Sequence to fold (381 residues):
Amino acid sequence: MKSSFILSALGATGALAHGLVTQLLIDGTLYDNFDPNTDPYRNPRPQRIGWTLPNDGPVDGVTTAAIACGTDSTAGSLSAPATAGSSIEFFWNTWPESHRGPTMTYLAKCPGTDCTTADPTTLDWFKIDHAGLNSDGTWISDTIIANNNTRTVTIPSDIAPGPYLIRHELLALHSASNADGAQFYPMCVNLQITGTGSAVPANTVKFPGCYSPTDPGVLLNIYYPPLTSYTIPGPAPYVPGGASAPISSSDTASPAPTKASIGIGSGIPTLVPSAIPPYGNTTRPHGKPPQTTRVVDVPPKEVAGLDKVPPAAVDVAAAVPTAVAPVINTIFETVAITQILTMTVSAVETVTVTLPHPGGSDVPECTPAGRYKRGIYGYGI
Ligand SMILES: *[C@@H]1O[C@H](CO)[C@@H](O)[C@H](O)[C@H]1NC(C)=O
Ligand SMILES: *[C@@H]1O[C@H](CO)[C@@H](O)[C@H](O)[C@H]1NC(C)=O
Fold:
Protein backbone atom coordinates (compact mmCIF):
# COMPACT_ATOMS: atom_id res chain seq x y z
CA MET A 1 0.00 0.00 0.00
CA LYS A 2 2.71 2.38 0.98
CA SER A 3 4.74 1.91 -2.16
CA SER A 4 1.74 2.31 -4.40
CA PHE A 5 0.91 5.50 -2.57
CA ILE A 6 4.42 6.78 -3.21
CA LEU A 7 4.16 5.80 -6.85
CA SER A 8 0.94 7.65 -7.33
CA ALA A 9 2.36 10.64 -5.53
CA LEU A 10 5.32 10.60 -7.90
CA GLY A 11 2.97 10.28 -10.79
CA ALA A 12 1.15 13.36 -9.67
CA THR A 13 4.42 15.24 -9.38
CA GLY A 14 5.41 14.14 -12.84
CA ALA A 15 2.13 15.33 -14.24
CA LEU A 16 2.81 18.77 -12.81
CA ALA A 17 6.16 19.08 -14.58
CA HIS A 18 5.93 21.81 -17.17
CA GLY A 19 9.11 22.95 -18.80
CA LEU A 20 12.20 25.11 -18.59
CA VAL A 21 14.71 26.37 -21.10
CA THR A 22 17.72 24.55 -19.74
CA GLN A 23 20.15 25.34 -22.54
CA LEU A 24 20.59 27.87 -25.29
CA LEU A 25 22.67 27.84 -28.45
CA ILE A 26 23.52 31.47 -29.12
CA ASP A 27 25.49 32.40 -32.18
CA GLY A 28 27.11 28.95 -32.12
CA THR A 29 27.92 28.76 -28.42
CA LEU A 30 26.01 26.45 -26.08
CA TYR A 31 25.05 27.86 -22.68
CA ASP A 32 23.50 26.22 -19.68
CA ASN A 33 20.66 28.32 -18.38
CA PHE A 34 19.71 29.03 -14.79
CA ASP A 35 18.15 25.87 -13.37
CA PRO A 36 15.89 26.39 -10.34
CA ASN A 37 16.23 22.72 -9.45
CA THR A 38 20.00 22.81 -9.00
CA ASP A 39 21.57 26.27 -9.21
CA PRO A 40 20.29 27.57 -5.85
CA TYR A 41 21.91 24.62 -4.10
CA ARG A 42 25.33 24.85 -5.71
CA ASN A 43 28.27 26.50 -4.03
CA PRO A 44 29.59 28.59 -5.55
CA ARG A 45 26.37 29.38 -7.31
CA PRO A 46 26.91 29.27 -11.07
CA GLN A 47 26.83 32.53 -12.93
CA ARG A 48 24.37 32.51 -15.78
CA ILE A 49 23.23 34.53 -18.74
CA GLY A 50 19.63 33.63 -17.87
CA TRP A 51 17.37 35.27 -15.32
CA THR A 52 16.19 33.23 -12.36
CA LEU A 53 12.88 31.42 -12.12
CA PRO A 54 11.42 29.86 -8.98
CA ASN A 55 10.32 26.67 -10.72
CA ASP A 56 9.06 25.39 -14.05
CA GLY A 57 5.53 26.64 -13.51
CA PRO A 58 3.61 29.37 -15.28
CA VAL A 59 3.59 32.97 -14.09
CA ASP A 60 0.79 34.33 -11.98
CA GLY A 61 -1.38 36.06 -14.55
CA VAL A 62 -0.60 38.39 -17.42
CA THR A 63 -0.95 41.73 -15.63
CA THR A 64 1.71 41.29 -12.95
CA ALA A 65 5.43 42.08 -13.13
CA ALA A 66 6.02 38.34 -13.39
CA ILE A 67 4.87 38.39 -17.00
CA ALA A 68 8.10 40.20 -17.94
CA CYS A 69 10.75 37.64 -17.08
CA GLY A 70 9.06 35.24 -14.66
CA THR A 71 8.02 35.27 -11.04
CA ASP A 72 10.48 37.16 -8.80
CA SER A 73 13.05 36.90 -11.55
CA THR A 74 16.49 38.36 -10.91
CA ALA A 75 19.07 39.09 -13.56
CA GLY A 76 21.72 36.72 -14.74
CA SER A 77 25.17 38.14 -14.05
CA LEU A 78 26.62 37.30 -17.46
CA SER A 79 25.70 38.28 -21.00
CA ALA A 80 26.05 36.22 -24.15
CA PRO A 81 27.56 37.85 -27.21
CA ALA A 82 25.42 37.47 -30.31
CA THR A 83 25.77 38.87 -33.78
CA ALA A 84 22.76 40.57 -35.33
CA GLY A 85 21.37 38.19 -37.92
CA SER A 86 22.52 35.07 -36.06
CA SER A 87 20.18 32.53 -34.54
CA ILE A 88 19.33 31.50 -31.02
CA GLU A 89 18.02 28.06 -30.19
CA PHE A 90 15.99 27.69 -27.02
CA PHE A 91 16.20 24.13 -25.70
CA TRP A 92 13.27 23.32 -23.44
CA ASN A 93 13.93 20.32 -21.22
CA THR A 94 10.43 19.00 -21.75
CA TRP A 95 7.02 20.18 -22.76
CA PRO A 96 3.71 18.42 -22.09
CA GLU A 97 1.79 17.62 -25.25
CA SER A 98 -1.39 18.83 -23.58
CA HIS A 99 0.07 22.32 -23.18
CA ARG A 100 -0.76 23.37 -26.71
CA GLY A 101 -0.28 26.96 -27.73
CA PRO A 102 1.93 29.57 -29.34
CA THR A 103 5.46 30.80 -28.78
CA MET A 104 6.53 34.43 -28.76
CA THR A 105 9.98 36.00 -28.49
CA TYR A 106 10.84 39.65 -27.88
CA LEU A 107 13.93 41.83 -27.59
CA ALA A 108 14.40 45.01 -25.58
CA LYS A 109 17.44 47.24 -25.45
CA CYS A 110 18.71 47.87 -21.94
CA PRO A 111 19.97 51.20 -20.64
CA GLY A 112 23.60 51.25 -19.59
CA THR A 113 26.24 48.77 -20.60
CA ASP A 114 24.37 45.52 -20.01
CA CYS A 115 21.06 44.14 -18.79
CA THR A 116 22.15 42.93 -15.36
CA THR A 117 20.55 45.87 -13.60
CA ALA A 118 17.65 46.37 -15.99
CA ASP A 119 14.05 46.46 -14.85
CA PRO A 120 12.27 44.42 -17.51
CA THR A 121 8.91 46.04 -16.74
CA THR A 122 10.23 49.42 -17.91
CA LEU A 123 11.80 48.27 -21.18
CA ASP A 124 10.40 48.76 -24.66
CA TRP A 125 10.00 45.31 -26.16
CA PHE A 126 9.65 44.46 -29.82
CA LYS A 127 8.61 41.03 -31.00
CA ILE A 128 11.03 39.16 -33.21
CA ASP A 129 9.32 35.80 -33.58
CA HIS A 130 6.01 34.12 -33.06
CA ALA A 131 4.07 31.10 -34.21
CA GLY A 132 0.78 29.58 -33.11
CA LEU A 133 -1.61 27.32 -34.96
CA ASN A 134 -0.08 25.32 -37.79
CA SER A 135 -2.00 25.04 -41.06
CA ASP A 136 -2.66 21.35 -40.39
CA GLY A 137 -4.40 22.09 -37.11
CA THR A 138 -1.49 21.14 -34.89
CA TRP A 139 0.19 23.78 -32.75
CA ILE A 140 3.69 25.18 -32.77
CA SER A 141 4.07 23.51 -29.36
CA ASP A 142 3.62 20.15 -31.13
CA THR A 143 6.27 21.20 -33.64
CA ILE A 144 8.61 22.26 -30.87
CA ILE A 145 8.18 18.94 -29.04
CA ALA A 146 8.87 17.05 -32.27
CA ASN A 147 11.95 19.18 -32.81
CA ASN A 148 13.89 18.23 -29.68
CA ASN A 149 11.82 20.70 -27.64
CA THR A 150 13.61 23.44 -29.54
CA ARG A 151 12.56 26.81 -30.91
CA THR A 152 14.96 28.72 -33.13
CA VAL A 153 14.70 32.47 -33.58
CA THR A 154 16.81 34.90 -35.59
CA ILE A 155 18.07 38.18 -34.22
CA PRO A 156 17.03 40.88 -36.69
CA SER A 157 20.06 41.64 -38.84
CA ASP A 158 19.67 45.40 -38.85
CA ILE A 159 19.07 46.33 -35.23
CA ALA A 160 21.45 48.64 -33.45
CA PRO A 161 24.15 46.88 -31.43
CA GLY A 162 24.08 47.01 -27.67
CA PRO A 163 22.83 45.21 -24.58
CA TYR A 164 19.49 43.51 -25.07
CA LEU A 165 17.25 41.30 -23.02
CA ILE A 166 15.67 38.51 -25.00
CA ARG A 167 12.35 37.27 -23.68
CA HIS A 168 11.16 33.92 -24.97
CA GLU A 169 7.96 32.19 -23.94
CA LEU A 170 5.54 29.39 -24.52
CA LEU A 171 1.84 29.91 -23.82
CA ALA A 172 -0.22 26.87 -22.84
CA LEU A 173 -3.88 27.17 -23.79
CA HIS A 174 -5.33 23.90 -22.50
CA SER A 175 -7.27 25.76 -19.78
CA ALA A 176 -7.61 29.05 -21.63
CA SER A 177 -11.39 28.92 -21.75
CA ASN A 178 -11.32 29.81 -18.06
CA ALA A 179 -10.61 33.36 -16.95
CA ASP A 180 -6.87 33.61 -16.27
CA GLY A 181 -6.55 30.00 -17.38
CA ALA A 182 -3.93 30.61 -20.04
CA GLN A 183 -0.46 29.74 -18.77
CA PHE A 184 2.49 31.93 -19.74
CA TYR A 185 6.01 30.57 -19.38
CA PRO A 186 8.37 33.50 -20.09
CA MET A 187 12.12 33.49 -19.57
CA CYS A 188 14.81 36.14 -20.15
CA VAL A 189 18.48 36.06 -21.11
CA ASN A 190 21.09 38.82 -21.28
CA LEU A 191 22.64 39.44 -24.68
CA GLN A 192 25.30 41.75 -26.04
CA ILE A 193 24.36 42.19 -29.67
CA THR A 194 27.02 43.23 -32.12
CA GLY A 195 26.57 44.35 -35.68
CA THR A 196 26.58 47.28 -38.02
CA GLY A 197 22.87 48.01 -38.00
CA SER A 198 21.18 51.00 -36.48
CA ALA A 199 17.48 50.11 -36.57
CA VAL A 200 15.38 50.88 -33.53
CA PRO A 201 12.08 49.06 -33.98
CA ALA A 202 9.16 51.35 -33.25
CA ASN A 203 6.32 48.95 -32.58
CA THR A 204 7.16 48.29 -28.95
CA VAL A 205 5.17 47.04 -25.98
CA LYS A 206 5.53 46.79 -22.22
CA PHE A 207 5.35 43.79 -19.92
CA PRO A 208 2.98 43.90 -18.16
CA GLY A 209 0.71 45.68 -20.58
CA CYS A 210 1.25 43.78 -23.78
CA TYR A 211 -1.22 41.02 -23.01
CA SER A 212 -4.72 41.23 -21.64
CA PRO A 213 -6.59 38.40 -19.93
CA THR A 214 -9.30 38.85 -22.56
CA ASP A 215 -7.13 38.90 -25.67
CA PRO A 216 -8.62 36.63 -28.33
CA GLY A 217 -5.46 34.52 -28.17
CA VAL A 218 -5.52 34.32 -24.36
CA LEU A 219 -9.16 33.68 -23.46
CA LEU A 220 -10.47 31.03 -25.82
CA ASN A 221 -11.50 27.42 -26.08
CA ILE A 222 -9.03 25.57 -28.27
CA TYR A 223 -11.08 22.37 -28.32
CA TYR A 224 -14.53 23.38 -29.49
CA PRO A 225 -15.53 24.58 -31.94
CA PRO A 226 -12.37 23.52 -33.78
CA LEU A 227 -10.17 26.51 -34.51
CA THR A 228 -9.58 27.59 -38.06
CA SER A 229 -7.41 30.51 -37.07
CA TYR A 230 -5.69 31.79 -34.00
CA THR A 231 -4.66 35.31 -33.04
CA ILE A 232 -1.22 35.20 -31.50
CA PRO A 233 -1.00 37.61 -28.55
CA GLY A 234 1.12 40.71 -28.95
CA PRO A 235 2.17 42.73 -31.96
CA ALA A 236 3.49 41.56 -35.29
CA PRO A 237 7.16 40.59 -35.28
CA TYR A 238 9.69 43.13 -36.40
CA VAL A 239 11.00 42.44 -39.86
CA PRO A 240 14.47 43.69 -40.79
CA GLY A 241 14.18 46.66 -43.08
CA GLY A 242 12.80 49.11 -40.58
CA ALA A 243 9.12 48.46 -41.03
CA SER A 244 6.89 46.34 -38.91
CA ALA A 245 5.72 43.07 -40.31
CA PRO A 246 3.14 43.48 -43.02
CA ILE A 247 -0.30 43.15 -41.58
CA SER A 248 -2.26 40.54 -43.41
CA SER A 249 -4.88 38.04 -42.57
CA SER A 250 -2.64 35.20 -43.56
CA ASP A 251 0.84 35.51 -42.24
CA THR A 252 3.70 33.12 -42.40
CA ALA A 253 4.34 33.63 -38.79
CA SER A 254 7.92 32.57 -38.56
CA PRO A 255 10.85 32.20 -40.86
CA ALA A 256 11.07 28.72 -42.27
CA PRO A 257 13.54 26.82 -40.16
CA THR A 258 16.71 26.07 -41.95
CA LYS A 259 19.13 23.26 -41.71
CA ALA A 260 21.89 24.70 -39.65
CA SER A 261 25.21 23.05 -39.38
CA ILE A 262 27.23 24.44 -36.56
CA GLY A 263 30.86 23.87 -37.36
CA ILE A 264 33.95 23.25 -35.38
CA GLY A 265 35.16 25.95 -33.12
CA SER A 266 32.23 28.21 -33.70
CA GLY A 267 32.51 29.08 -30.11
CA ILE A 268 35.52 30.65 -28.68
CA PRO A 269 33.19 32.31 -26.30
CA THR A 270 34.03 35.85 -25.45
CA LEU A 271 32.33 36.64 -22.24
CA VAL A 272 31.01 40.05 -21.73
CA PRO A 273 31.63 41.36 -18.25
CA SER A 274 28.63 41.99 -16.17
CA ALA A 275 27.97 45.44 -14.86
CA ILE A 276 29.65 45.99 -11.59
CA PRO A 277 27.67 48.07 -9.21
CA PRO A 278 29.82 50.90 -7.92
CA TYR A 279 29.16 50.07 -4.29
CA GLY A 280 28.22 47.05 -2.32
CA ASN A 281 24.46 47.11 -2.05
CA THR A 282 22.61 46.75 -5.27
CA THR A 283 18.98 47.67 -5.42
CA ARG A 284 16.97 45.18 -7.38
CA PRO A 285 13.67 46.08 -9.00
CA HIS A 286 10.34 44.97 -7.63
CA GLY A 287 11.23 44.67 -4.01
CA LYS A 288 13.69 41.92 -4.64
CA PRO A 289 16.03 41.45 -1.74
CA PRO A 290 19.07 43.68 -1.94
CA GLN A 291 22.07 41.86 -3.20
CA THR A 292 24.42 42.35 -0.33
CA THR A 293 27.04 39.87 -1.38
CA ARG A 294 28.26 38.81 -4.73
CA VAL A 295 29.70 35.41 -5.35
CA VAL A 296 33.18 35.29 -6.79
CA ASP A 297 32.78 32.40 -9.09
CA VAL A 298 36.11 31.27 -10.43
CA PRO A 299 35.20 28.91 -13.17
CA PRO A 300 36.45 25.36 -13.35
CA LYS A 301 39.21 25.00 -15.87
CA GLU A 302 38.04 21.84 -17.50
CA VAL A 303 36.09 22.55 -20.61
CA ALA A 304 35.44 19.15 -22.06
CA GLY A 305 31.94 18.34 -23.01
CA LEU A 306 29.26 20.43 -24.52
CA ASP A 307 27.38 21.15 -21.40
CA LYS A 308 29.95 23.39 -19.84
CA VAL A 309 29.08 26.95 -19.41
CA PRO A 310 31.77 29.23 -20.73
CA PRO A 311 33.91 30.59 -17.94
CA ALA A 312 32.24 33.09 -15.80
CA ALA A 313 33.42 36.60 -15.48
CA VAL A 314 35.06 37.12 -12.14
CA ASP A 315 33.19 39.74 -10.30
CA VAL A 316 35.84 41.87 -8.74
CA ALA A 317 33.28 44.03 -7.02
CA ALA A 318 32.63 41.18 -4.66
CA ALA A 319 36.17 41.17 -3.46
CA VAL A 320 36.47 44.89 -3.00
CA PRO A 321 35.28 46.55 0.18
CA THR A 322 32.29 48.70 -0.43
CA ALA A 323 34.07 51.79 0.84
CA VAL A 324 36.71 51.60 -1.86
CA ALA A 325 36.43 54.06 -4.69
CA PRO A 326 34.34 52.77 -7.54
CA VAL A 327 37.26 52.32 -9.87
CA ILE A 328 36.94 48.64 -10.31
CA ASN A 329 38.34 46.62 -13.07
CA THR A 330 36.59 43.66 -14.39
CA ILE A 331 38.71 40.65 -14.91
CA PHE A 332 37.33 38.12 -17.15
CA GLU A 333 38.78 35.16 -18.76
CA THR A 334 38.35 33.68 -22.08
CA VAL A 335 38.93 30.03 -22.42
CA ALA A 336 38.69 28.42 -25.75
CA ILE A 337 36.10 25.78 -26.01
CA THR A 338 36.04 23.73 -29.09
CA GLN A 339 32.61 22.55 -29.79
CA ILE A 340 31.32 20.35 -32.45
CA LEU A 341 27.65 20.73 -32.73
CA THR A 342 25.64 19.52 -35.55
CA MET A 343 22.23 20.91 -35.36
CA THR A 344 19.58 19.75 -37.65
CA VAL A 345 16.44 21.69 -37.53
CA SER A 346 13.77 20.77 -39.91
CA ALA A 347 10.24 21.77 -39.81
CA VAL A 348 8.15 24.03 -41.86
CA GLU A 349 5.62 26.03 -40.04
CA THR A 350 2.89 27.90 -41.69
CA VAL A 351 0.57 29.64 -39.38
CA THR A 352 -2.59 31.36 -40.22
CA VAL A 353 -2.92 34.42 -38.12
CA THR A 354 -5.80 36.79 -37.90
CA LEU A 355 -4.36 40.01 -36.65
CA PRO A 356 -6.59 42.22 -34.59
CA HIS A 357 -5.95 45.50 -36.38
CA PRO A 358 -6.10 45.12 -40.15
CA GLY A 359 -4.59 48.10 -41.76
CA GLY A 360 -1.79 48.22 -39.31
CA SER A 361 0.09 51.04 -37.72
CA ASP A 362 2.88 51.58 -35.31
CA VAL A 363 0.42 51.84 -32.49
CA PRO A 364 1.14 48.92 -30.22
CA GLU A 365 -1.59 46.37 -30.45
CA CYS A 366 -1.15 45.66 -26.82
CA THR A 367 -2.81 47.44 -24.02
CA PRO A 368 -1.31 49.80 -21.48
CA ALA A 369 -0.02 48.44 -18.25
CA GLY A 370 -2.09 48.45 -15.15
CA ARG A 371 -5.43 48.52 -16.86
CA TYR A 372 -6.57 45.10 -15.87
CA LYS A 373 -7.32 43.86 -12.49
CA ARG A 374 -5.31 40.97 -11.37
CA GLY A 375 -7.03 37.64 -11.47
CA ILE A 376 -6.74 34.65 -9.26
CA TYR A 377 -4.40 32.27 -10.92
CA GLY A 378 -3.81 28.66 -10.28
CA TYR A 379 -1.37 26.06 -11.31
CA GLY A 380 -2.59 22.96 -12.95
CA ILE A 381 -1.84 20.82 -15.86
C1 LIG B 1 23.71 46.85 2.87
O1 LIG B 1 22.41 46.38 3.19
C2 LIG B 1 22.33 45.78 4.47
C3 LIG B 1 20.94 45.24 4.64
O2 LIG B 1 20.20 45.31 3.51
C4 LIG B 1 22.68 46.82 5.54
O3 LIG B 1 22.63 46.20 6.81
C5 LIG B 1 24.04 47.37 5.28
O4 LIG B 1 24.32 48.39 6.20
C6 LIG B 1 24.15 47.91 3.87
N1 LIG B 1 25.50 48.31 3.57
C7 LIG B 1 25.78 49.45 2.97
C8 LIG B 1 27.21 49.70 2.72
O5 LIG B 1 24.93 50.23 2.60
C1 LIG C 1 18.58 18.69 -28.28
O1 LIG C 1 18.51 19.50 -27.13
C2 LIG C 1 19.63 19.43 -26.28
C3 LIG C 1 19.38 20.31 -25.08
O2 LIG C 1 18.21 19.95 -24.43
C4 LIG C 1 20.87 19.87 -26.99
O3 LIG C 1 22.00 19.76 -26.15
C5 LIG C 1 21.06 19.02 -28.21
O4 LIG C 1 22.16 19.50 -28.95
C6 LIG C 1 19.81 19.08 -29.07
N1 LIG C 1 19.96 18.19 -30.21
C7 LIG C 1 19.78 18.62 -31.45
C8 LIG C 1 19.94 17.59 -32.51
O5 LIG C 1 19.48 19.77 -31.71
